[in-house]
Amino acid sequence: MSTTIFPESGDQITESAWATQNQSLTVAERYRVNGYTLSAGTGLNADVAAGTCVVNGYHIVSGGTQAVAVTASNTNYIWLNEDGTLSANTTGANPGSELLLGTAIADGSSVTSVSHDYDIANSQYVYIRKAADESVNNSTTYQDDDDFAFAVADGSQWEIDAFLSADHPDNSSDLKIKFTGSGGATVTQRLFFFGSASSTGFFTDFSTTEVVWDAESGADRVGHVKAMITVSGAGTVTMQWAQDTAFAGNTTINQDSVLVARRVIG
Amino acid sequence: MSTTVFPLAGDTVTVAAWSDMIAAIDRGATDPLSSLDNTSEDTARYQFDSNTSGNISNDTFVTLVSMQVDEGQVFLVDAFVSLSDSTTSSPGDSLDLRISAPTGARVTGISIAKSGGVGSGAIVDDFIDTTSTQVIQGKEAATPAQTVENRITMVVVGDTGGGEVALQWAKSANLYTNTFTTSYASMTARRIW
User: Fold this and answer.
1) What are the tens digits of pLDDT across the range B51-99?
2) For a disulfide at B157, which of A31, A159, B106, B133, Cβ 3.0-4.6 Å?
3) Which residue has the higher pLDDT, B39 or B110?
4) Looking at the structure, do residues A105 and A177 belong to the same domain, yes or no?
5) Among chain B residues, CA nearest to A262
């Protein structure tokens, strides 16, 4: 029997030793960023401020501002690579398994704006902002939300907060919500809902299958779904919703609604 | 300016380098927990602020509790506040509560409040706002000798800027002599990115 501990002070890093350690770290994917904020640089460059971060098990410390070249007249995605270098592309496709720092929009000659608001989806955290209004008309059949879906691992448990802005066409239509698994995943769910039912009252619901938002007609009503999800099988978890009673009018979940999920076990 | 990457093949492990890395992985910062005292906050992951003795008697907004968000950070935030109104008979000035956020931050959330007895007088002040400063403004009607409890749950994103996110309050006007008092207000922020 032998016991080995890696690393100890004075150990020499080897590829094989680090590969073993790095796999454990990478599984956690606790990408933590401090600094590395974006700003417009000179000409067609975005500036990336000093910072510290862990990418794929490598601790990267940047001591000052760095410039990264961007493409004119495009939205550029700025990446921090595990070797400490920076890169940009216009597709949004992750060049490897690197970390997205944000976006920089450029016109023909310079960066006009930067943003750190982007969807986050890894095995630890999910943050999704709804990109556009989405409507259901005269239907009680559950449909997948266009935006609120994320990948999950077998055996994982997730704490979910969904902040929803919705338009209700009629007092009778209401809005039902649940989560579902696909692609090999099934879910057990505990759902709690509270939100505005009218201009002066609120409504709550609790369920292990679906929650119903019993709201009077009106625009921009706000609701909060709090959910605990247990996943069996790897796949995708998606929020689904529909009218609870069919009504010939649009029930809409509005742009800028937000879903946040945090893996708590698994 | 320099960029260092640790570890690379051939590096020699040092306690300092390894400690920095583990701290960054585990807590998002290199400040060890042992350096915190009871009045400090691990702002890399959690923030907490409370107020147990505030009162307001005019229409100037002041901060009850607050947190800090930096560019690129995402926090889940809960704020609680219990308020009482000195009004003994109507009329009296009503109360404004708001979340004040720095330009460039996105705030999305919901405020729920209860006034009076359970099941009566319950209201919700809803908001989803993603623009910039002063993102909600909920009113509490002046209610003689009543206590109002609010809970605000929100996501705060440092999109293109950062700074202080605050729960603030003021009398909606300054026409009457009533005051509002808080026995407890708190804000808890958990960083998720």
Assistant:
1) 988 888 888 989 999 999 888 888 999 999 888 877 766 677 877 788 8
2) B106
3) B110
4) no
5) B192
Chain A, 179 to 198: residues with Cβ < 8 Å from chain B are: 194-197
CA distance B133 to chain A (A): 17
Phi, psi of B15 (to 5 degrees): -60, -40
Q: For B127, which of A59, A222, A260 is closest by C-beta distance?
A: A222
- Number of structural domains chain A divides into: 2
pTM: 0.83
**Which whole number is the average pLDDT over A161-188?**
96
CATH for A18: 2.60.520
Verify whether the Cβ–Cβ distance A62 to B29 is below 8 Å. Answer: no
B13/A8 touch (CB, cutoff 8 Å), yes or no:
yes
Residue A12 Cα, gap to closest chain B Cα (Å): 5
3-state class (DSSP) for residue B57: coil
Helix (H) or strand (E) holding A53: strand A51-55
Do both A151 and A259 map to the same domain?
Answer: yes
Whether chain B has a CB inside 8 Å of the CB on A142: the answer is no
pLDDT at B5: 81
Name the token pair of B106: 């996105």
